[in-house]
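Two proteins follow. First one:
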Amino acid sequence: MITLTEKAAKHVSRYLERRGKGIGLRFGVRTTGCSGMAYKLEYVDNGEAEDQVFESHGVKVFVDAKSLPYIDGTELDFAREGLNEGFKFRNPNMKDECGCGESFRI
């Protein structure tokens, strides 16, 4: 199961509204970085047949089958810290992350 905090859901909903199209957020992982894996996010216009779809605070989150074992149970939050803003990932499967925070290891 993938969940969004209320702040993250509001951010995604506002962005989709401004964008004028889209049905949700795609969340997955890719192999990269010094720790092995990195999160990837993109807005979804059309889902894929093999996607797992989760809904949280009215926002649909699409996850491909290969990514799900690495991110199952993750909560996405959206935070502003000073001049920076972005998604924060609370992944219970993560064992370690690199010093720059861009990649993680399971």
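Second one, unrelated to the first:
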Amino acid sequence: MNRRNAAFDNRLRPTEFADFVGQAKIRDRLMLAVEAAKSRGESLDHVLFSGPPGLGKTTLSYILGEAMGVNVKTTSGPVITKPGDLAGLLTSLEQGDIVFIDEIHRMAKTVEEYLYSAMEDYAIDIMIDQGPNARSVRLELPRFTLVGATTRIGLIAAPLRARFGFVNRLDYYSASELAEIVKRSAGRLGVDIDDEGAAEIARRSRGTPRIANNLLRRVRDYAQVRADNFITGAVAKDSLSLLEIDPHGLDEMDRRVLETICVKFGGGPVGLSTIAVSIGEEPDTVEEAYEPFLIMEGYMERTPKGRIATPLAYQRLGLKKTTQDGLFDF
């Protein structure tokens, strides 16, 4: 994410639980934990957020810091490459501070093991020198809260996962929740929007607030130039059609994935690598960026033999498929 997009996200990011829309059960649990920890004068238990990107893991981390009245120090798993990096970060903390590690599953295993004692005993042992002069130095740490975020919780080692007091999986948002987010963000941006305009953007946002805010940004540009800075349902439709995002949230790459399976390979099964080569993307990108939404919406299935397109995919693409059982005619 470049600096301009990061600044845009920060401008729209809620800073307290009352402004956070969606994830009601997780929000209630965290509010209860914060109130209990503050009443005892203790730091919050370690927290792990998992789920697809763009659902609010980073936002909730900053809200926790605001609610606890402590600093939040942010880093990411790939940045911490050696134990010294972790030691420098943890020894700079003050009592009760929050350390937020994004994509924690990508942290080096040698560094990850140092977190075990840091999370449980609030101390780390660092080796000084090498060979006969090697010795271990124990560094005491202030009590802190580690907040980890991951899009692939299965890649986190079980000993690390077990040390988190709260493990929360964030789910995709409903259209009504996204519409509320869009209206709130539009107010922050100083653009007028009606209910139909917010609902139109929400329907095409793939259940993800980050996508909803990014689409709002594009629709705002369109409205500013062609609609007197007012977003109606018709303005949103025209703007999103210009971006080739259909009413069901499918964008150009989604359609290319489905067309590859439906047209080039007769509906499948077809392997992930073959799909990736056909559309000019990396297999990991297809699997992590496109497939979750297409599977969630019922457009494709994963099977042991490969990916298969569903009848709904043919319907959305306006295609026909001849099968042994007859003809899908849409």
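SUMMARY FIELD: The longest strand covers residues 123-128. The chain has 14 helices and 13 strands.
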